[in-house]
Amino acid sequence: MAKKTICIDFDGVLADYSEGFQGKDVFGEMIPNADIATKVLKNNGWTIIVYTTRPVTDALKDWLKENKITYDHINENPDQPKDTSEKLMADIYLDDRAMCFRGTWNEWAVREIAEFTPACLTKKKEKAAFEAAYKEGDIWKRGNEKRIKVEGVSR
């Protein structure tokens, strides 16, 4: 089996980023199962690079260790051929702000780009809608359907 390399974004993929940037050493909670997923990838022979716009600080390394994120490198690929750019070579990039180019520029691709919303912003909108529904007393409303409360039970 050929060794493969994956670049995994930190914010929004390993750590929650729904509150946006709060400071270079302020991190969100771990995205559920990120620890398990990175361990499985490593056990299956992947080289894992944490690829982030954040500076590589002791606090970042401590967060990865405390959350049991398995990785080989941060923002570097020592296997990178000489005379290449700073863009890290990888077989896969996993990023909450990425789209997959499927080989054709067409109306569908352009529409997907225009309508794209990063996962962290989608989560933030969902949280805000949930909180608003709770405050308005409409927590039992789903879409255009309104649930009926019967003695503390919804149905």
Instruction: Provide the domain count.
Output: 1
Structural class: alpha/beta
Can you count the beta strands?
Answer: 8
CATH topology title: Rossmann fold
Terminus-to-terminus distance: 52 Å
> Which sheet architecture does the biggest sheet show?
4 strands, parallel
Please give the count of helices: 4
The residue fraction in helices comes out at 25-40%
- State the CATH class: Alpha Beta
The shape, in one word, is: globular
Gyration radius (Cα, Å) is 20 Å
Instruction: Give the mean pLDDT.
Output: 86
How would you characterize this protein structure?
The protein contains 4 helices and 8 strands. With 155 residues, it is of the alpha/beta class. The protein has a single domain, classed as Rossmann fold (3-Layer(aba) Sandwich), CATH 3.40.50. The strands form 3 sheets. The chain has a 4-stranded parallel beta sheet, covered by helices on one side. A two-stranded antiparallel sheet has the order 5-6. A two-stranded antiparallel ribbon has the order 7-8. A hairpin with a 2-residue loop joins strand 7 and strand 8 (153-154). It is globular and about 60 Å long. The protein starts with a strand and ends with a strand. The mean pLDDT is 86.
